[in-house]
């Protein structure tokens, strides 16, 4: 049960300075590219300039002859016979018979300097036979589309499907046709979203070392050191435990740093260069061309609604491409699409389609923003048609604790109703709007995630505590974990040090992904702390000569539990720690599990915009994020997640997109042209933290990282229609598209 | 290509290094001088993570050649605090939780310091436009702008 039902917190819910703050404001914090090693070489990657091409011949002789070059690797240096996702990862790391997208790696070199490595990369001669390509999802699903990979379809794909369909899914419940027949209004529309990139400011960087003996070390910016270890060793045919991976500080990830890209290349190069460490740092254009963008989507949605706003049935058919490999998050998009609505009849159909684009990676609530763009846009269109208040319609249909979710399971404790109530009460809704201005509302959902978790903590000789965690700190998780451990121990926040450790120090941990760090690592840290507390109580009991059950822990000290236990002054953590060497040795605690009790998070956003009728440019005037955090351990960093998610969603809605030319080459692989929101694009982002505690976490945490990217896409589309009468169903809603839509309405 | 000997000053210290004429000032600071606080986010002058000042002028060090540092005076994030005393901007960034991953933070702090030297009392809009060349993907800029405004207010109070 959540402790807040019977406890006041001393630390949880406060806003202390983050433990890594000083390092990060002074330039001391060490990120992926900030480490060098004795004897180090620099790596550079040769990439395909073609969207789809047979690799006829690779001649590395001129590169190898260059002074200072120590190794060149191609696919021939990787083991054969991999299957499934291991093969996909290997093929994406280094092309085999064909280059599958613009930017696909085909060779890599290591040399004594970065400049020599780059020169050598240019000397690698690759002969290509250009093949027909396809990048758009609706083109890729056509029966006559260029075939990305023969036999890519898995068992779910029906016989006779188009050749690039790799996965198919169909699920739902209830009588959808009867539901539509019962409705006063049935609308069906098609929506499209373009691929976007996570856009972390730190490019991928690693320093890898691998000897002939198969033992290796890696320093890398990643969300998950164990994922890097597992994937690199799978791709290279190594024993997993022989590679030790140390995570650097991480300059943003948003899901994009949960997988491998050039990391195995540094190891392969190192092995070939006699075990010298090899550093590879991607350029921004390499990041955009060859690392995980999200999927692009084409989506048909149909909803039936009564005059009073009650939804009678819903249907979604989503087509998504996630690059040249299976894995577009079409399943998650469908699960999230109607998650906020209590439905009696719903049908979902999904196609995971291959195209000549980079292999997609997770991006903040993978799939959810696309599904929300389609569903939350259509709901708004229907509210408009029926002259209903969009918030009231969502309140009327809102799922509550115990309801059956649109994707099947029964919801545990959720707070959508509380979120919508808080939206309704917010002063932003009363702000007056002028000409060309409009307000849009939309809701969003993310499941949140638990994942394999291993945490170790230990009491130091002076009564302070150290906690070893396996989830890299991207947005303040050291602070939240320190707060929870300090609260549990009854010591001060400053007396806890949280260390993000390497793979050799703990059992397997999943990455910092799925909004899981504060939930799962936090829960495991509290459990581990509980072990140490029980041991400290045992030590006190032994000294007092009473049963250990007669000792309890309160206010940072072992205390007799009630008057019958005997009369002893509290024995503080400092006293116990100071003599632990003589009372049984080190005091520590650890916990390994896939923590249960995940709490899902709903949110809703309200945006006010102004459209310039002459240029079509959309300016964000006011922005409100309301989301259920369960419990905000460190409210500043919860707000930060809300604001950051909203900003990414705003970029996706208005500017960001992958632009390919007719040769399938990415046209905007730099930040000048792939335009993420800058400070002058945004207003202050107002936040309301709703707290419906998650009973599955000792402090009520749900996880807050992901939901916030979801509502901006539809909320802004809804606001644009409110301002202009024009409905945009195709992202991004950049000035030319908005202008064209306004003109079409006026015509 | 033969390297060129460069003599320059970084954060008040005399520094010498050998630069390939193709290397940027950012490369030289990071790989030859050992100051890795300035970051490369784009290499094209779009993200501002490499911001430093060159003879007091705010520049993207990825757009300056290392050899251009000859005889100049460079200030980086590593020189921003006065010993143990953090610059008010550094303190306010921690206090306001104005960083999440922290990768853009050095460049933003250097750029914000240059702003406050030029304009000690900026409006929110002036802060936003000045920092428009510094990308942050984590925060949505809200807490960054608040931290800069708060630091400016504190510095004005101290100066008064």
Overview of this protein structure:
The complex is a heterodimer of chains A (747) and B (160). By secondary structure, chain A is an alpha+beta fold. Among the domains of chain A are: 3-29 and 450-593, Aldehyde Oxidoreductase, domain 4 (2-Layer Sandwich); 409-448 and 599-746, Aldehyde Oxidoreductase, domain 4 (2-Layer Sandwich), CATH 3.30.365. Chain A has a 7-stranded mixed sheet. In chain A, strands 7-15-14-13-8 form a 5-stranded mixed sheet, with helices on both faces. Chain B has 160 residues and is an alpha+beta fold. Chain B has a 5-stranded mixed sheet with strand order 2-1-5-3-4, with helices on both faces. In chain B, a hairpin with a 2-residue loop joins strand 1 and strand 2. In chain B, helix 2 packs across helix 5.
- Give the biggest beta sheet of chain A: 7 strands, mixed
Instruction: Detail the poorly predicted runs of chain B.
Output: none
CATH homologous superfamily of the largest domain in chain B, by name?
Answer: Beta-grasp domain
Strand order of the largest sheet of chain A: 3-5-1-12-9-10-11
Q: For the report, how would you describe the main beta sheet of chain B?
A: 5 strands, mixed
Give the low-pLDDT segments of chain A: none
Mean pLDDT of chain A: 97
Number of helices of chain A: 19
Shape category of chain A: globular
In CATH, the homologous superfamily of the domain at 409-448 and 599-746 in chain A goes by the name Aldehyde oxidase/xanthine dehydrogenase, molybdopterin binding domain
Question: Which strand-content bin applies to the residues of chain A?
Answer: 15-25%
Distance between the termini of chain B: 54 Å
Quick gist of this model?
The complex is a heterodimer of chains A (747) and B (160). With 747 residues, chain A is an alpha+beta fold. Chain B has helices at 25-32, 88-95, 105-118, 124-130, 142-159; strands spanning 4-10, 13-19, 51-54, 57-60, 73-75.
């Amino acid at each position: 049960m959540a402790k807040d039902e019977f406890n006041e917190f001393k630390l949880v819910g406060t806003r202390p300075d983050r433990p890594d703050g000083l390092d990060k404001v002074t330039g001391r914090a060490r990120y992926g590219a900030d480490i060098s090693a004795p004897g180090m070489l620099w790596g550079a990657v040769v990439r395909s300039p073609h969207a789809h091409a047979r690799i006829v011949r690779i001649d590395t002789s001129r590169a190898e002859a260059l002074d200072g070059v120590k190794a060149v690797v191609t696919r021939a240096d990787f083991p054969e016979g991999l299957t499934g996702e291991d093969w996909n990862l290997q093929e994406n790391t280094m092309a085999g018979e064909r280059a599958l997208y613009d930017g696909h790696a085909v060779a890599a070199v290591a040399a004594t300097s970065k400049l020599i490595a780059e020169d050598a990369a240019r000397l690698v001669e690759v002969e290509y036979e250009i093949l027909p390509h396809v990048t758009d999802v609706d083109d890729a699903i056509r029966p006559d589309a260029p075939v990305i990979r023969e036999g890519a379809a898995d068992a779910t794909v029906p016989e006779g499907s188009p050749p690039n369909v790799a996965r198919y899914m169909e699920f739902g419940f209830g009588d959808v046709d009867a539901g539509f027949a019962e409705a006063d209004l049935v609308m069906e529309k098609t929506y499209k979203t373009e691929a976007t990139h996570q856009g972390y400011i730190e490019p991928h960087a690693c320093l890898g070392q691998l000897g002939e003996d198969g033992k290796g070390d890696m320093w890398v910016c990643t969300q998950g050191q164990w994922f890097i270890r597992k994937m690199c060793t799978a791709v290279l045919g190594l024993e997993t435990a022989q590679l030790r991976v140390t995570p650097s500080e991480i300059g943003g990830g948003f899901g994009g740093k949960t997988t491998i890209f050039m990391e195995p290349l540094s190891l392969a190069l190192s092995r070939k260069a006699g075990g010298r460490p090899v550093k590879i740092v991607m350029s921004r254009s390499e990041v955009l061309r060859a690392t995980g963008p999200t999927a692009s989507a084409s989506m048909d949605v149909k909803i039936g609604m009564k005059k009073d706003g009650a939804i009678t049935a819903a249907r979604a058919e989503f087509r998504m491409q996630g690059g040249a490999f299976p894995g577009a998050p079409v399943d998650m998009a469908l699960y999230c699409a109607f998650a906020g609505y209590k439905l009696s009849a719903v049908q979902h159909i999904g196609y995971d389609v291959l195209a000549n684009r980079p292999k997609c990676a997770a991006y903040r609530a993978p799939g959810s923003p696309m599904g929300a763009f389609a569903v939350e846009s259509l709901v708004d269109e229907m509210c408009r048609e029926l002259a209903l208040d969009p918030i009231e319609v969502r309140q009327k249909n809102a799922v509550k604790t115990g309801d059956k979710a649109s994707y099947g399971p029964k919801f545990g404790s959720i707070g959508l109703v509380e979120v919508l109530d808080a939206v309704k009460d917010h002063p932003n809704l009363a702000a007056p709007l002028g000409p060309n201005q409009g307000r849009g509302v939309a809701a969003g959902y993310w499941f949140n995630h638990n994942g394999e978790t291993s945490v170790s903590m230990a009491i130091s000789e002076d009564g302070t505590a150290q906690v070893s965690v396996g989830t890299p700190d991207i947005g303040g998780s050291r602070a939240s974990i320190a707060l929870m451990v300090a609260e549990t121990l009854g010591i001060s926040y400053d007396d806890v040090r949280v260390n993000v450790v390497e793979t050799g120090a703990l059992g397997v941990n999943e990455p910092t992904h799925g909004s899981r760090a504060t939930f799962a690592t936090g829960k495991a840290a509290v459990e581990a702390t509980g072990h140490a507390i029980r041991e400290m109580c045992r030590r006190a009991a032994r000294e007092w000569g009473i049963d250990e059950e007669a000792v309890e822990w309160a206010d940072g000290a072992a205390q007799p539990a009630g008057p019958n236990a005997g009369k002893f002054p509290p024995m503080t953590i400092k006293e116990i720690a100071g003599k632990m060497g003589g009372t049984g040795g080190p005091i520590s605690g650890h916990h390994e599990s896939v923590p249960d009790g995940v709490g899902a998070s709903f949110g809703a956003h309200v945006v006010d915009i102004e459209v310039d009728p002459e240029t079509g440019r959309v300016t964000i005037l006011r922005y409100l994020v309301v989301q259920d955090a369960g419990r905000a351990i460190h409210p500043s960093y919860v707000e930060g997640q809300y604001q950051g998610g909203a900003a990414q969603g705003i970029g996706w809605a208005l500017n960001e997109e992958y632009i390919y030319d007719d040769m399938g080459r990415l046209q905007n692989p730099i930040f000048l042209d792939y335009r993420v929101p800058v400070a002058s694009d945004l207003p202050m982002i107002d936040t309301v933290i709703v707290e419906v505690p998650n009973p599955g976490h000792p402090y009520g945490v749900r996880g807050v990282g992901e939901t916030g990217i979801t509502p901006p896409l539809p909320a802004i589309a809804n606001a644009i229609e409110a301002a202009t009468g024009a409905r945009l169903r195709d992202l991004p809603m950049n000035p030319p598209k908005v202008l064209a839509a306004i003109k079409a309405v006026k015509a | 290509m033969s390297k060129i000997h460069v003599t320059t000053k970084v954060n008040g210290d005399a520094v010498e290094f050998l630069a390939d004429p193709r290397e940027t000032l950012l490369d030289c600071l990071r790989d030859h001088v050992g100051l890795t606080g300035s970051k490369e986010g784009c290499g094209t002058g779009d993200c501002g993570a490499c911001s430093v000042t060159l003879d007091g002028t705010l520049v993207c060090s990825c757009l300056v050649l290392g050899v251009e540092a000859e005889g100049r005076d460079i200030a980086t994030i590593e020189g921003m605090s006065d010993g143990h005393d953090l610059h008010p901007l550094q303190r306010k960034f921690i206090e306001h939780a104005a960083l999440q991953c922290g990768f853009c933070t050095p460049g933003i702090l250097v750029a914000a310091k240059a702003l406050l030297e030029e304009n000690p009392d900026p409006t929110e809009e002036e802060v936003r436009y000045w920092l428009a060349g510094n990308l942050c993907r984590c925060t949505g800029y809200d807490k960054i702008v608040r931290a800069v405004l708060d630091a400016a207010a504190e510095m004005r109070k101290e100066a008064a």
